[in-house]
Amino acid sequence: MVKRFLVACFALALSTQAGAQLAFVQGVDYDVLPQAVKTSHPYKIVVTEIFWYGCPHCFSFEPFVERWSAGLPEDVVFEQVPSVLNPRWTEHARSYYAFKMMGALDRVHKAFFDAIHLERKRMPDLDSIAEFVADQGLDADQFRKNYRSFEVDTRIRKNGKKEKRYGNNGVPAVVVNGKYLVSAGKAGSNERMIQIMDFLVGQERAQ
Q1: Percent of the chain with pLDDT over 70
Q2: Has residue 159 been placed in a domain?
Q3: Where are the beta strands (DSSP E) in the chain?
């Protein structure tokens, strides 16, 4: 009887310790936005990752995000937004939306990341990116049209305005339901960033 009691106490202590580790603190592990930003799906919990293809931290975070987003419950929506915090990041943000317009984003998203970080191709301008697109067996001329299109111009302007409202000053960053900002700096690791995202999704679901 005593042995069972001690085992139960030990299990409870481990459970309590694990729970404490996952109880994240506002202002320490994540920030609350001064004003909530309208999301793309008002009746679901929207998780928005802000990234730049040229960022090595975004590249290392991508497999974690890919695994996390593969099995989401029906009440959670995941979206990625290419950052335009730095003017030189705009070429890659435009490329993201041009890929999307071609219906090729799923096909080339990882390949573009890999080309930059594994093959050491910087691709800082339209010509070098169009060459990458052609190497992927896609229509480079159509890509160029999409890249310069009014639709992509509009998305870039909206991204700039939205990032100002989010208040993120680096990438990768994650905004949960337009209310909470999770930064790589505060999270400290990719694993912990995912845990904070889950914590905030659960917090939103409980409201």
Answers
A1: 89
A2: yes
A3: 31-32, 45-51, 76-82, 173-176, 180-183
